[in-house]
Amino acid sequence: MSQLNMVPVDINAANNNNNFNNFNGEFNVGVGEFSIGNSSENQEQGLGNSHRRDRKKRYHRHTQTQIHEMETFFNECPHPDDKQRKKLSTQLGLHPLQIKFWFQNKRTQMKTHQDRHENCQLRAQNELLKTENQCYRDAIQNALCPRCSGKTAVAEMSLGEHQLRIQNNQLKEEIDRLSAMASRYAGKMIMSHPQMSHLVQPPPSESGMRTIGRDVYGNGSFLGSLVGPDDADKPLIIELAIRAMEELMTMSQVVEPLWMGGVNGSSLVLNLEEYSRTFQMGLGPRLNEFRTEASRDTAIVPMNSMHIVEGLMNENQWSTIFCGMITRAMTHENLRVGSGPGNFDGALQIMSAELQVPSPLVTTREIYFVRYCKQQAEGVWAVVDVSIDHLLPNIQLKCRKRPSGCLIQEIPSGYSKVTWVEHVEVNDAGAVYHMYKHLIFSGQAFGANRWLATLDRECERVASMVAIGFPTIEEPGSIMIPDQGKIEILKLAGEMRRGFLGLATTLLGSTYAGSVGDDIKVMKMKNVNEPGKPPGIVLCAATSFWVPASPKTMFDFFRDDNNRNEWDVLSNGRNMKKLTQIGNGRDVRNSVNLLRNINTNQEDMMTIQETSTDPTASYVIYAHLDVPAMEKVINGADDSDIATVLPSGFVILPDGLTQTIGNGGGSLITISFQMLVDATSSSQLTISSVATVENLVRATVVKIKTMFPNPPCFSHPPFGN
C-alpha cells in the first residue's frame, strides 16, 4: 500500500490520547475526536512535550472503502474545492486536510506515471526513427543509377566540394524564389540587346534543295523535329544545370593538377584521373566507345561581359558569332528567363545545335543540351552547357557535352577576360575522314582554343563597326568611302562569310548524279525571291585537300593580290587592283577589300573580298558584284535590297601534324565555289553544267598543289596526296 494512504500519529503519554499530528504542529488529530491546536497554549504544550521524551510514530491506513470513494471522486473531479472536501470528509470520517493531501498526492502520482509513460513512448519512437534513418542511409549509399547502373552515393567531400554544395543550396533557394515569377514568362523568346542586334544579324536562309539557315534544321538532321522534355523531367534538368554550373566554376578556376599543358602550348588539357577524383559524383560514368575531348583556354576579348552573354543566350546571335563552327542552332524551350528585361541572370533554356568543321568531308556533331546563365558577381558571368539527350527516348547522339562553357570577367576599357572550358565525349570511330583525323583527335577542331579564338575574332569585327573612324589603307588609285558606306560593306562581308561557311557542310554527302569526282561534292539550289541571292539555279561545289605548307603561308598566299592569277582560274592570268582596304581587326591582315580586274573587258564587275585569320583558322572569301550595285553600297545604302552575291573562297585549317613539317605543319584547304548556271529557276540542269563547275574546282586544286608540291622528304605524303 502506498504511503499516501497513511498519516503520522503522535502518542501522548499524559492522556493516552492518539493524536494525528501535522508536520508543522498546527493541528492534532485524535482517534475519536478532532481538535485544532491553533492557540499559543497548545503550541507551548506541543513544544514542551517534544522535550519530555522521544515520540513514536505510526501510520494510519485509509480503509479500502475510503480509498475507493476518493478514487471515484478523483476520476470525476481531480481538484475539489473546500466545500467538496468538507462534504467528502464527513462521508468518510476523515479530516478535510487528509482529503486535501490525499488528492495532492494522487495528482502527483498520476502526473509521474503519465510522464514516465510518455517518456517510454518517446524513447521507442526515437529508436524507430534511428532505425529508419539508418535504412535510408544504407539505401542511398547502395543506390544505383537506373540508366547507367553506376553508384550515386556521395563520397567523402573535400573542402572545395563542401563550399560548392553550400553554393548549390543557395542556388536552389534562388530558383525556388524565382520559379513563380519565371513560370509566367516560360516559353517567351529572349529579347535581343539593341547594340548587339544591329551588328550581328541573323543569317538569311536559302531556298532550294537544302536550307542553309542558322536557326532551322535541314532535311539531314532530326534535331529540328525534337520537342521539349516532359514536365516530370524539368526539375531534374534544373538540378543538372545547377550541378553543371558548380563543376564549371571549379573547372574554370583550378589549374594543376586538374589541367596540364596542351598541344598548342597555350590551351590546357584535362587530367582525366584527377577529374575523376575531384568530381566523384560527376554526371554519370563515361560511355563505352566514346572518347574524351577536354581543354581550357583564356583570352582577353574586346567586348563587355553583358554583350558576350547576350550573344551566347540568343541562338541566332550565337550561331552567327560562331558561324565557322555552328551550322544550325535552335532553342526548344525556355525553362527560366532572366531576372529582368535585358538581364540573363538565372536564364535556363533547352537547345540543340549542329557543329561543323568547314569541310564537305567531315561529318557534323549534333548535340541536345541545356544552357544555364548565372551572374556570379558584379561584372562576372558564367554560361554552362550540359547534354540532356539521355532524357529523350529513342535518341542516340554521337556527341555528349559534359559541363562546358565560359567564365566571363569584365575588365576596364570595355574588355573582358574569358575562360573557356570545353569537355565533350564523342563516338566518331570510323566516321572521320582520314585527312582530318589528326586535327579532330587532337582536340583542335572543337577545342576551347577554337571557340575562344572565334569569339575574339567576332568581337573584333563588332568593335570595328562601332569604332569612331575605320582603319583604312589608302593606296594610289584607291577610292574614298564614307563611314556609313564602310559599315554597309562590312555588313555585306558578314553575310558573305555566313553563307560561305554554312555552304561547305551543307554539301556533306551530296554528289550530283553524273559526278565523277569522289571528293568533290556538288549540289543544286533554286533561289526564288531570296534576299541577297540572285534568282535562278545555282550550282555549289566544294572539296578539301592537304598542302605541305603552314596555314600562315597559305593565308598570305591567297590574300596577296599579286598571286591571284596563280590560283584563280577565272582571272585569265590577270592581277587584281585593290581599290580600298577596310580593317576589321587588330591584325592588319583582317580586312575587307574592294578589288577590280586590270586590263579586262569586265568593267562592270567588282570583287568584294574578306580575309580573316586567327590562331585556329583562316578564311579568304570573295564574291563578284556589278558596279552600280556596289556603288550604292559604297554610298551607304542598305545592302540587303541591292546586292546579290554568291560567295566563294577558301578555308585554311592546320592539319594537326605540327611536328611533321617544321613548326607550322601542313594545311587543310577547303575550296568552295558557287555558280549561277541559269537565271530561270524552272529550267532543267544539264550534265555539262555540273561538269563545268567540277572542272573549275579541280583546276583550282591542281594549280595550288603545283605551287606547293610535296617536299622531297615525303616519298609518301601523310594523307596520300
Automatic annotation (TrEMBL):
Homeobox domain residues: 53-113
Region entry Disordered, spans: 36-58
Biased composition (Polar residues): 36-48
A single GO cellular-component term on record: nucleus
Coiled-coil parts of chain: 161-188
Molecular functions (GO terms): DNA binding
DNA-binding region: 55-114
Annotated localization: Nucleus
Gene Ontology biological process terms in this record: cell differentiation
Domain START: 230-464
Pfam families: Homeodomain, PDF2_C, START
Keywords linked to the UniProt accession: Coiled coil, DNA-binding, Homeobox, Nucleus, Transcription, Transcription regulation
Ranges that cross the membrane: none
Matches recorded under PROSITE patterns: HOMEOBOX_1, HOMEOBOX_2, START
Listed SUPFAM superfamilies: Bet v1-like, Homeodomain-like
Family statement drawn from the similarity comment of this UniProt entry: Belongs to the HD-ZIP homeobox family. Class IV subfamily.
Protein name: Homeobox-leucine zipper protein HDG3
Organism name: Cardamine amara subsp. amara
